[in-house]
């Protein structure tokens, strides 16, 4: 990170001579060996985290969020379908036929699935999912490393530790279980750097254009993470302004000019997609009942080891209750963070800003009620005073505000390691510094120690603090080393589907109705049929957020009589007494879905489902490995 620099003799984030940071930089086109080693380590760690998927990449999904996993496989197929058929990617009728799905109003990951469409066509959505998931984790760590090593710390090892935490923190790994949009944070460090350098004299136009382009692109990856980043940047800028009012006033005009350029460009690039998100077909206003507002962070979660870390216990989440593991740092890291802040806040602006971020966003993440070890204490939290109807806020989940806390802790880890690295090394002891921005070097001028730095003899006596600092950081983060994501086997799609046996039954403009009909609760395998065939046939129902009759967002399509009958039969395991009204309703629903064929494949409830559909539509035909009801003559 960096902030608007107006005094060339001082780096306002670290309160030290900027040459101390510059002295470790290499020419821009010649990355240091340490940089390549760091990136290589991140890539290996990304592969390791996804290891269980690669054992059978076509037949395994996340054990924790299998439906989300299938949804994102479907999204990769959607990107490929949109590119191959030159269709508008902001909307699709391949799911929830005939109404369709507003992709901008869902976590569609268009900024990833569209450019990767050629690879999806070549490798398939299952392979692309696993490949991208590991790559996104590594890329986020890599850009975090770049931000830290180029703008905040001198030690490449410090930047490596901080970058690893930014990319593989417990909360990020938690979301990697089926939600790759929350691990696709590789643009966020770049956005933070550009925001905090907008006040750079003479570069407001360039910095603003770059920031605007980055913000526009991030909108097509994850708007929620962009919102959290914007809130964090706002707090950082305000905290810096309080501490450095003179520097802030001097840079304010340039900063605001660059911000205006960034906002203008981002608006031009995203005006139509954002309008489509809130006003296009199948758009909605808020989620029904504000379902996420109760998801606040439990106070005990901060000192608890996350489920998917080496020190974690899967049973502990049953004690703390329903929550995302966005903090779950474990007590060693919490203790280290407190000690580091006490030691660093006096001499480091960056540490003081990190402290403000940690406090502000930890409190804000508590939710409407304070929870302790899974029990609501009856004490009101900050979200008790927030209306569910506020724009943007209505869609937020309080616990996710702690993802900002995780990022601040990652920066704090880098600062702590870097502070340990400085012990025993006098500030004035540096042989060469860059003479120009191009990376050319020149003999260093004799420099006085930075403000707060010890004289050489004192620094030498404190060399023992360096290994102590390294050991403290290592002991805090090693228990959080991620495990490979747990995966479960899933039944393969029927050969009738993958081999194209459905094609004679589904003419253009008609749908294939799988049984059970896909939803956010039922029909996970049948949703994958669409993804694994490149979405060549549309299906009713699905897993998405769309409007109900009041325009509020709900998960999945509103149930029709036939889909409700199928789900209730699955849940009970018996066929209810059927009437002529049930038979009339299924014909009406099939006409609404524009169905041409109903297909039932292998399923744990296959026998009772076949009995139900046979009682409604008559005897099926066995084709390949599925039961088929050709309903074209019935629906007209």
TrEMBL record:
Region described as Disordered: spans on this chain: 426-455
Ranges of residues in domain DUF6311: 48-375
UniProt keyword Transmembrane helix present: yes
Residue spans crossing the bilayer: 36-55, 129-148, 157-176, 226-242, 254-275, 328-346, 353-372, 392-415
Keywords on record: Membrane, Transmembrane, Transmembrane helix
Biased composition (Low complexity): 440-455
Claim: Transmembrane is one of the keywords in the record: yes
Taxonomy, superkingdom: Bacteria
A Pfam family assignment: DUF6311
Coiled coil: none
Protein name: DUF6311 domain-containing protein
Species this protein is from: Micromonospora ureilytica
């Amino acid at each position: 990170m960096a902030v608007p620099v107006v005094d060339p003799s001082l780096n306002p984030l670290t309160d030290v001579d900027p040459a101390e940071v510059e002295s470790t930089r290499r020419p821009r086109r010649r990355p240091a060996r340490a940089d390549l080693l760091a990136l290589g380590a991140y890539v290996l760690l990304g592969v390791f985290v996804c290891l269980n998927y690669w054992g059978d990449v076509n037949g395994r999904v996340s054990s924790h969020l299998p439906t989300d996993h299938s949804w994102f496989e479907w999204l990769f197929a959607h990107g490929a379908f949109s590119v191959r058929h030159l269709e508008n990617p902001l909307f699709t009728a391949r799911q929830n036929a005939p109404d369709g799905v507003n992709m901008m109003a869902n976590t569609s990951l268009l900024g990833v699935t569209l450019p990767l469409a050629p690879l999806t066509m070549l490798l398939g959505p299952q392979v692309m999912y696993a490949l991208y998931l590991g790559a996104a984790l590594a890329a986020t760590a890599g850009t975090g490393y770049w931000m830290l090593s180029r703008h905040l710390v001198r030690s490449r090892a410090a930047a490596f530790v901080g970058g690893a935490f930014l990319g593989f923190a417990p909360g990020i790994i938690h979301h990697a279980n089926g939600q790759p949009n929350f691990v696709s944070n590789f643009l966020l460090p770049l956005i933070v750097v550009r925001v905090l350098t907008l006040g750079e004299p003479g570069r407001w136009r360039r910095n603003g254009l770059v920031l605007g382009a980055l913000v526009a692109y991030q909108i097509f990856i994850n708007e929620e993470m962009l919102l959290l980043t914007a809130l964090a940047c706002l707090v950082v800028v305000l905290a810096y302004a309080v501490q450095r009012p003179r520097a802030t006033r001097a840079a304010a005009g340039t900063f605001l000019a660059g911000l205006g350029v960034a906002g203008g460009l981002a608006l031009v690039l995203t005006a139509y997609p954002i309008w489509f998100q809130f006003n296009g077909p199948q758009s909605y206003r808020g989620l029904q009942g504000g379902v996420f507002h109760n998801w606040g962070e439990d106070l005990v979660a901060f000192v608890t080891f996350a489920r998917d870390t080496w020190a974690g216990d899967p049973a502990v989440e049953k004690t703390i209750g329903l929550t995302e593991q966005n903090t779950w740092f474990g007590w060693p890291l919490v203790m280290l963070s407190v000690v580091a802040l006490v030691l660093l806040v006096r001499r480091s602006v960056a540490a003081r800003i990190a402290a403000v971020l940690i406090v502000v966003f930890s409190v804000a993440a508590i939710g409407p009620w304070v929870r302790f070890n899974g029990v609501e204490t009856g004490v009101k939290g900050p979200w008790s005073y927030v209306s569910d109807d506020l724009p943007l806020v209505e869609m937020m989940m309080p616990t996710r505000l702690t993802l900002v806390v995780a990022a601040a802790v990652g920066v704090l880890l880098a600062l702590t390691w870097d502070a340990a690295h400085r012990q025993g090394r006098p500030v004035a002891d540096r042989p060469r510094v860059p003479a120009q921005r191009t990376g050319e070097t020149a003999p260093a001028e004799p420099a006085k120690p930075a403000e707060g730095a010890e004289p050489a003899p004192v620094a030498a006596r404190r060399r023992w603090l360096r290994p102590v600092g390294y050991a403290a950081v290592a002991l805090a983060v090693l228990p959080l080393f991620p495990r490979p994501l747990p995966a479960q086997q899933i039944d393969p799609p029927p050969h009738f589907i993958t081999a194209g046996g459905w094609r004679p039954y589904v003419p253009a403009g008609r749908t294939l109705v799988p049984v059970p009909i896909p939803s956010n609760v039922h029909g996970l395998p049948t949703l994958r049929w669409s993804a694994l065939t490149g979405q060549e046939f549309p299906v009713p129902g699905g897993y998405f957020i769309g409007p109900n009759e009041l325009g509020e967002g709900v998960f999945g399509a509103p149930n029709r009589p036939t889909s409700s009958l199928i789900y209730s039969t699955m849940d009970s395991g018996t066929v209810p007494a059927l009437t002529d009204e049930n038979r009339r309703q299924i014909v009406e629903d099939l006409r609404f879905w524009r169905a041409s064929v109903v297909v039932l494949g292998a399923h744990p409830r296959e026998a009772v489902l076949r009995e139900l559909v046979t009682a409604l539509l008559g005897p099926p035909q066995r084709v390949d490995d599925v039961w088929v009801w050709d309903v074209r003559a019935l629906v007209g």
